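User: I'm preparing a small set of examples for a lab meeting where we compare how different chains pack in three dimensions. I only have the primary sequence for this one, and I'd like the structure in token form so I can line it up with the others. Please keep the answer compact; I'll paste it straight into my notes.
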Amino acid sequence: MLRKITAIASLLVANASVWANPPDAIATSPAAPYLLAGAPTFDLTMVTFREKYNRDNTMLPIGEFRAIAAAEDDSPLLTRAASKLNENLYASTALEKGTGKIKTLQITYLPLQQSGEDKAARAIAISYMAALMRQFEPALTVGQSQGKVTSLLVKGKGSRFYQKQVGAIRYVVSDNGDKGVTFAVEPVKLALSTP
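Assistant: Understood. Below is the structure token output for the 195-residue chain.
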């Protein structure tokens, strides 16, 4: 299990190295904004998030997150952690050191080799991703959130990075083909427009 979590962490670190600034765009840049000092955080700790999430989603629980050993290229400002949801589905996060506030929440789906089982496993992954989305857009119904996640996954298919900004939230899709797809929710630092 530790090997799988390490592989997921490596995938997430690789995903973080590709980034875009304009909403709804595909581009590359040296590092994801949540990796930078001063990047925004949700005003939420993992404990608070999990309590609310699990209360709202009893059929799609997220277990306790376990810290992932830091790699050489990891930011010293972050703590990474992951939770195994099932054999091919993981939740992960990057937390601000000191405060424990969330900088990113991610669900990573690793496709199954057996195509008959993959369809059901993908449906479960979309359900988890939609449940994560509803934590930040509570007015969405289950159907609406699943539709939005499916649309984001289609738009991000084959892209190492795809983002869509909704207010102060950024949804990110990173599709690594056979190695999996990651759906992330992150805060956006809003700036006042200048006249």
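A couple of notes for your slides: The radius of gyration is 16 Å. Residues 115-136 form the longest helix (22 residues).

User: Perfect, thanks.
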